[in-house]
Write a structure and sequence with these properties.
alpha+beta, Thiol Ester Dehydrase, Chain A, 5-stranded antiparallel beta sheet, 5 strands, about 20% helix, globular
């Protein structure tokens, strides 16, 4: 299948205690952790390509630039949105935003992924 610019994906989260900086060790405050924001943004990129790849293919993250702009409390709803801006061979560049449901922007940036053969990639992983 051909991957085309403009693909979009979303990922949603209700912030739980396990998603906080305190729980993940990335800080000492009980608010949505930057690593969890990044994981949500990456999930939106994966959702954008779902059903668009050749059988046996997947994408893997290769580069991220993310600005975490505001805090979000436990219990808040959060949505990440990804839009595919650039297709350069097997390289995919997504613009991502993360916002609180009904509220303001929490983060924005870019996520780059590369299309790989799932079996070969997994076999080459070092233990």
């Amino acid at each position: 299948m051909a991957i085309m610019r403009g693909l979009r994906g979303t990922a949603d989260l209700r912030v739980g205690e396990e998603d906080t900086a305190l729980a993940l060790g990335s800080g000492d405050v009980p608010v949505l952790a930057t690593p969890r924001v990044l994981a949500l943004a990456e999930a939106a990129t994966v959702a954008a390509t779902a059903g668009q790849l050749d059988e046996g293919s997947t994408t893997v993250g290769t580069e991220v630039a993310l600005s975490h702009l505001a805090a979000s409390a436990v219990g808040a709803g959060v949505r990440a949105e990804a839009g595919l801006r650039l297709v350069d061979g097997k390289r995919l560049v997504f613009d991502v935003t993360v916002a609180q449901t009904g509220g303001g922007e929490l983060a924005r940036g870019t996520v780059e992924r590369v299309v790989v053969d799932r079996a070969r990639f997994t076999a080459a992983a070092r233990s």
